[in-house]
Amino acid sequence: MAGNETAGGELTKHEQLLQYIRDLPVGTRISVRQMAKEREVSEGTAYRALKEAEQIGYVSTKERIGTVRVDKRRRSHPEQLTFAEVLEIVQGSLLGGEEGLSKTLHKFVIGAMELDEMAGYIDAGSLLIVGNRENAHRLALAHGAGVLVTGGFGTGGDVKQLADERKLPILTCRHDTFTVASMINRAMYDRLIKRKIMMIADLVEPSARAGSLKQSATVADFLKTSAETGFSRFPVVDEWNRVVGMITSKDVVGSAAGQSVDKLMTRRPMTVTMNTPIASAAHRMVSEGIELLPVVDRQRKLAGVVSRAELLRAMQFANRPQQLGETFDALVWAGFSERRDEAGRLLFTGLATPQMSGPLGTLSEGVLTMLMQQAAAKATDELGRREHMLENMTTYFLRTIAIDATLTVQPLLIEASRRHVKMEVQVLQEGDVMAKAMLTAQTIDAS
């Protein structure tokens, strides 16, 4: 038996259905019943394929819309919101122009001005957010823009007909204009942040077949597959292509050629999914001494593999956390400036702002912990170990810190090796130590 054959007839149908979904034009609506009928498979088989396609990113399921074939872009490039996603964000309903829901918008315009002035801001691909002003609705559609009617209002039948003709959506929701604009703006920032975090999906192409061995494969099959591929590690899968183990060249040393690999493999291996951040996967591989990780879907079916070397190389090009400027950590840390003391030691100085307060009106312990972690991370970067993961932190809150206090965060290196960094961080106010922490971080060396 060849070690990397396709698993049975069920898996073949599954792959064929995924290929069928990939070949559909973007914007095509699809259902389990429709696909089962067209492809002559059971609805259960169609459902499993559609769910995996949704996880991969080939289709998207939206409330009140259904499942639609979407354009799967690389996650490293921020995607614009679609009108369908806006509809979901504002928890609204569709009035007309259903065929335009898959279109993207590049900006939104608040309709709080006269029509003549409004026309100068509306263009194709924009979204007009306005109340029950039907003349503004018509203007936006005429300029190629979608419309979001706020306050729970509707629109006229002629406007709905125009939206259908131009294939531009007109939506409605119960929120006011300010709330809607805030919700969409927040969603755009969240989308940007998520796209800057590298995931396993950025490294593994779901349609690519991964070399694997069946449970019934033998040592001879392992050696043959290893010679053909040049690899010495393979996931072991069952008849449904679910990962059940890992087998390496060390596991088969001294075993008879006819020995089955399921007697030699490591059971219940560590796995990751397409949505696992590469930094998390790399940390697990380094800490556990693992060289290859199977990538699985929701049913633990093998979707690909990723090696330790691939992850560490990718991390060298990953965006740094401080570039994700809209995260809470980045917003708080932005108020602290870097300087050196007389001895050349690194210091960070900033103000305890009201937004950093806790329930007692003093500086939040969570914010204080984050400040010490950020200072330690900056100091670790200076050692040339840019990729690291916090392993342990022991914190002592010695005194409460009042709002508007000027703070100095000082990281002090205790020990540094190739794999670990140990550091003490203290927070001072006017020379008095207010908090202190001992941190240990594991550095991830790409070499």
Outline:
With 447 residues, this protein is α+β, with helices and mostly antiparallel strands.
Topology:
Blueprint lengths: L7 H16 L5 E2 L1 H8 L3 H14 L2 E4 L3 E4 L13 H7 L3 E4 L10 E4 L4 H5 L6 E5 L3 H9 L3 E4 L7 H10 L3 E3 L4 H20 L16 E2 L4 H11 L3 E5 L5 E6 H4 L13 E2 L10 H11 L3 E5 L5 E6 H10 L10 H6 L2 E5 L5 E6 L13 H18 L5 E10 L8 E11 L3 E10 L2 E12 L4
Parallel strand pairs: 5-6, 6-7, 7-8, 9-10
Antiparallel strand pairs: 1-3, 2-3, 4-8, 10-11, 11-12, 13-14, 15-16, 16-18, 17-20, 18-19, 19-20
Helix pairs in contact: 1-3, 2-3, 6-7, 11-12
Q: Helix fraction?
A: 25-40%
Cα distance, first to last residue?
Answer: 37 Å
Radius of gyration: 28 Å
Count of alpha/pi helices: 14
Q: Can you count the beta strands?
A: 20
Determine the strand fraction and express it as a percent band: 15-25%
Flag low-confidence runs.
1-11, 73-78, 319-325
Written description of the protein model:
- This protein has about 450 residues and is an alpha+beta fold.
- The chain contains 14 helices and 20 strands.
- The strands form five sheets. A six-stranded antiparallel β-sheet has the order 15-16-18-19-20-17, covered by helices on one side.
- Helix 1 crosses helix 3 (about 45-55), helix 2 crosses helix 3 and helix 11 crosses helix 12.
- The protein starts with 7 loop residues before the first helix and ends with a strand.
